[in-house]
Amino acid sequence: MRTETRVGHLALWISPICVLLHTLCIFKEPAMGDQDLPGVLVSGLEGPHGICEDHIGDLQKHFTLITLQEFLENNTRFGPKVQAVYIWGGKPAVTQELLQSLPSLKIIASAGAGLDHLDLKLIASCGVKVANTPQAVSSPTADMGMALLLAAARRVVEGHRLAIAPDTENFSTNWMGQEVTGATLGIIGMGSIGYKIAQRARAFEMKILYHNRKRRKLEEEEAVGATYCESLDDLLQRSDFVLLAVSLTPQTQRLIGKRELNLMKPTAILVNIGRGLLVDQDALVQALQTGVIKGAALDVTHPEPLPRDHPLLKLENVTLTPHAGSATHQARRQMMENLVASILASLHGLPIPNEVRLNWDNSVA
Ligand SMILES: *[C@@H]1O[C@H](CO)[C@@H](O)[C@H](O)[C@H]1NC(C)=O
Ligand SMILES: *[C@@H]1O[C@H](CO)[C@@H](O)[C@H](O)[C@H]1NC(C)=O
Ligand SMILES: *[C@@H]1O[C@H](CO)[C@@H](O)[C@H](O)[C@H]1NC(C)=O
Fold first, then answer.
1. Where does the record locate the signal sequence feature (predicted)?
2. Of 21, 62, 76, 320, which sits 20 to 30 A from 8 (CA to CA)?
């Protein structure tokens, strides 16, 4: 800071505009590692469990980033400095022990829409706020849902392998997939992601059914041509594609098990862009192996990644992606910016954008 001020004085003699720009610059971009900046705990600055490397510079304009490792090495030194926890890819895990060693903690800012990795009741009992980034992830996750649906229906990954295989001499006329246009799509979970799926599916002339805790307004249904199925069983029986876009809660865990798979058409494809635990994976493997359903396309599994010898990895009619629903440069940047805004608001005592509020029964408001 001292050097910058001196440069500022020098610039005074050169050009007043320079000074103005420089002052603004100091105001907007405090020196990196400035001790006065609020401390924010992050999982790490590199590696698969670290935060996005492209975002580090931007975060350091506002915060002193404290890695979990630094914190664990000396929590008496770093604990009181941490005013926010920045959760990226579900990490760091917020345990009771962690909460107890962060006396200055105001907010937990968690990237993404899902909250299943957080004990919201426990966090609220410590007087700590929570914010997430639902808007930033809804379009890219809906895009991913359509990408998986199309890829599974038209066997894009299998087709790619066939097309590049060194022993391929001809393309069989008997190699076929399922038609998407005109098919029936059953969306389970009609939140913002489910709704965006419906908007996209409408352009593919699909018939759209949906199941949700709450029925959408008539205008909203009509805008995307979606029909409400109060009964999940009814949706499962009628759909050519079943797409899971529901959040994971104790009520939705293993929503799709053996019974539900047996209700689906033998030609049906299951697409999961929610959470792995929504599906009983053993039942799914069995259903795929025995032709109970045609195929599955999964952006999420349990655990992630699956053990390398897991049977789902060996099925031709399974398409897997590495939990990449929101993995676009644009969405990830938006997520980071939203988290910064929520943290700054909470530290300044302002209304917190995307604050997660709990109902009296501890469900998310
Ligand atoms: C932790 O930090 C405090 C204060 O900065 C220091 O006095 C102490 O020696 C540190 N302990 C370790 C284990 O590094
Ligand atoms: C097609 O390729 C297969 C091997 O992949 C070969 O056995 C077969 O003779 C080929 N058929 C024609 C018509 O070329
Ligand atoms: C799915 O693929 C497995 C082998 O990868 C196969 O045994 C099974 O018959 C396939 N199911 C259908 C419905 O095609």
1. 1-33
2. 62
Tell me the pLDDT tens digit for each residue of 320-358.
999 999 999 999 999 999 999 999 999 999 999 999 998
28 and 158, same domain (yes or no): no
CA 172 to ligand 2 center in whole angstroms:
9
- The response to whether residue 309 sits with its C-beta less than 6 Å from ligand 2 reads no
Residues 224, 343, single domain; the answer is no
Are residues 231 and 337 both part of a single domain? Answer: no
Q: Omega of the bond prior to 166 within 30 degrees of 0, cis?
A: no
Average pLDDT over residues 101-115: 97
* 9 assigned to active site: no
Partnered with residue 65 across adjacent β-strands are 40
CATH number at residue 267: 3.40.50.720
Residue located nearest, by CA, to atom 11 of ligand 2? 170
